[in-house]
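Team,

Forwarding the record for the chain on the shared tracking sheet. I've put the sequence and predicted structure together so nobody has to dig through attachments.
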Amino acid sequence: MFKQFGLPHWLLLYCILVPVAIFIGYLLATPTDFTSYALLSMLLFLLSFPLIVRWHYPFMLFAWNAWIIVFFLPGQPSLGVVMAAFSFCFAMLDRAMNKQTRFLHVRALAYPLIALAIVVAVTAKFTGGISGRALGAETWGAKRYLGVFGAILGYFAITARRIPAEKAFFYISLFVLGGVTAMVSDIVYAAGPSLYFLFVLFPATAASLQATTQDTMMRLNGLAFAALAGFEYVVMRFGIRGVLEWTKPWRLLSLLALMVVSLLGGYRSLVLILFFILVFQFAFEGLLRSRLFPFVLLFSLLAITFVIAFIQDMPLSVQRSLSFLPLEVDSMASQDAAGTAEWRLQMWRAVLPDVPRYLLLGKGFAFNGTDYMLTQEAMRQGYYNSYEDTLISGNYHHGILTLIIPFGIFGFLSFLWFCVAALGALYQNYRYGEEPLRLINTFLLAYFCARLVFYITLYGQFDLDLVLFTGTVGLSVALNGGVKTRETQASEEIVEVEEAVPA
């Protein structure tokens, strides 16, 4: 039409772009309107769709551990779950259009995950279905189901392709450093109301401790978990041996600084996670019999001496993090930590008698929203114990309890099957993987072991921790092109020798 009237092509662009710009400006002018948020997000999504199609896989890896929510979807799911669904759909479409495309199929890992998905689906069917508060239903719990199915689907999305060796460190860096986004919520709250609109992307719950404890011990929840992600990156990138290299002291200083910052959250659990990662990483690097072991032992003793000498001068949040150790900490920190420990023990004593009741058919994640709200009101008035609402919601603050009560013995056995297969796959890739991936494979095995031990013994939430487990082993499969064995290692060495010998 424009050619017929002799009009230039740039006029067509203006006819499209100017109305779109006006519409976006109107949406930005009403940022408190949810409709504006939703329409603006959909518009930005459409404009960025070509980039998502091109870079969906690395974006999914970054979003996997990111503290970002998709606020305009029901239930506000995490960005990692949404990107896993997108990436899986794109992988299936690519597989349908290109017959040469193949998923990295590892039966030992796929079968237990499929079995677990079936157990979860059957349990949901017979315990109230999958519905949620965001859908206007009286029965809640859909978001937790979404977390489990998203974790399983995400494994297959991650293993849809092999990661090239030259991009290995870049991709795993995205995977690990996505957790740094946890600090954004703390920064937004500290900056004041002018930035509160960012809470639609970065969950405000991450800054809840900062808001409720700023007059007492100031616990920085988001900053602590961001430091944990940074700590994991340093261990993954350099290993314990590389961190202790005396010619590059900044590595050790960075690791120590990140460990100190992680204590600002006041979580004893973070201290134990750091300890478990270091122990497993140290062992799998084979340093127990090395010359570095006496040095590490001496350095640890000096660090403990320093902590004992200056523990009273440290922030209360740091003292709370270390309160489980036999140290003289501030009474406020010790009492607060002891109160939460006693709260958990009381809850576990109350819930343990229910375990036999749900062995064959689990309770599921569904619970009555009205009962939950009424229970919280009764707790505020002092009629119920402080853990009664947790008994209804099913967040029992222990990994095995959050698995065996919702999904019974069959869910527990399926998860156990997956863990055994995952440990076997991670160990084989650690043992027989290619030399350029040695540090990465060592870290993935150490990280999986550390989080699994912590999940089984101390604390866990099944729908959240399953994401960590499936993502870790899925990334190992994608980096190594499957599961390495002694035979594949020998065949690869033969191929390398043949390529090195001139014809």
